Amino acid sequence: MYVLYNLGLCVATVVLLPWVFTRALRGRLPGIAGRLGFFHWDAFPAGGHVLWIHAVSLGEVKASAALAQELRIRIPDLRILVTSSTRTGWNAARELFPAPDRVLFPPWDFKWICRRFLRRIRPHAVVVFETELWPNFFRECKRAGAALLIANGRISDRTFPRYLATRRLWRKVLSYPDRVFAQSASDAGRFEALGAPPEKLHQAGNLKYASHPSSVPFVETLREMLRISEVGPVIVAGSTMPGEEQHLLEAFVELRRDFPRLWMILAPRHPERFVQVREQVEARGIPFQLRSAWTSETRPCPGVLIVDTMGELGAMYELATVAYVGGTLAPTGGHNILEPAFFARPIVIGPSMTNFQEIANDFLADSGAGKLPLEGEARAGAIIQIPNAAALTPVLGFLLLHPEFRQRLGEAARERWKKNSGGVAVVADEVERLLQLRAASQRLSASPSTEMVGREIVSTHKIGYSETDRHTDFAAGSGKIVGRRRSQ
Hints:
Blueprint lengths: L1 H24 L6 H4 L14 E5 L3 H17 L4 E5 L3 H10 L5 E3 L6 H11 L3 E5 L5 H9 L3 E7 L6 H6 L1 H7 L5 E4 L2 H9 L7 E3 L13 H12 L5 E7 L3 H12 L7 E6 L5 H10 L4 E3 L12 E4 L6 H4 L5 E4 L12 H5 L4 E3 L7 H8 L14 E2 L3 E2 L6 H10 L1 H17 L3 H24 L21 E6 L6 E6 L3
Parallel strand pairs: 1-2, 1-4, 2-3, 4-5, 5-6, 6-7, 8-9, 8-12, 9-11, 10-11, 12-13, 13-15
Antiparallel strand pairs: 14-15, 16-17
Helix pairs in contact: 3-4, 3-18, 5-6, 6-8, 11-16
């Protein structure tokens, strides 16, 4: 199956090459040289543990920062490399992982590229977030002697049938990780259906619960301005997708009849849509301000603030009287509701939450806020889920008019966030254990004696990149250490 996979990869590369370079020239596919394995590398100082974290985009980068924070407390000499596939994730990683940590774009999944990365970085452990299942990368990690974990693993309803159709390949790929930490029981079941050994599977919850927005100076300034101004209430509509802005702007026009000082902070998900969203606001004659044009002299005014910058939305949810999380009225699978939950803000979502279904179900199961006294099929738990765009205006209007209900809803969301934020410690325990076992493997390989009571020492083939080849078999918690000294 690996032969077929690599053959298909080569064919796809040839076919997609013009598209790749077109996107690169337009600035929408950054870091091509790095993805091919050509990057500047200032090697980590010798003597510490090296951890490589791969987090595909912004949400995973934030979750990985919580894991890294926990591990730094436990392992003071830990060196961390973070790779992220998207520009927003890469930029966030540079903020969340400042020097001496390193941030790169990840290698494309060709064997020679992965080997080049591994030989230069020389990681002791690799943690891959969510569903980044790359066959060559996984195999080369193990050949290089690195421990390998999947953290926050999930397989969506949409992608599971495709994985299942090619499970012969994934059975081999999923034999390489030392542990697979799934977000939920259903995710664990899907990994097992694809061939992951049951003894390697564990349910650790969603690590995104443990992440929380970083403070942003601009938001702190806005908070103070709102306190002394007459602007408000505030609707924060975050990560909106095509088709959603028109419903939000229609709702805004309706609601400002009752709330003439209403302010909406509107944050489109993708930067290429900033101009389009601005044109929609202008076409409706709604006063607006641009975040990118904000100066020290600017003051909030009733209307719409278009967030045409990246990396500040999470902290802006603190300003919300009501938060709407986008990608949920548009059929795109939804976005993360945990940031407004962290700030105990009342949260409204639409029907499309397949990308975060387990989290949505968890929040909707809690009815502590009380039944929503409105007609229609809106579901109220620790969040409110509306069935369609027609319900958006009445639900937002109800929340703006009822502060006590808003408070109960926000507090219920915050309690859900707190209840489920312990998964980081579970994954950190395993990373720490694997690093300790690998250090023991190195000491064993460097020792003149290879006798160990109750341990089997065997030779293994690998691409080794240091003076000592080593490999540790941690399957089923066996702790079996295998390795050999290179011949001189």
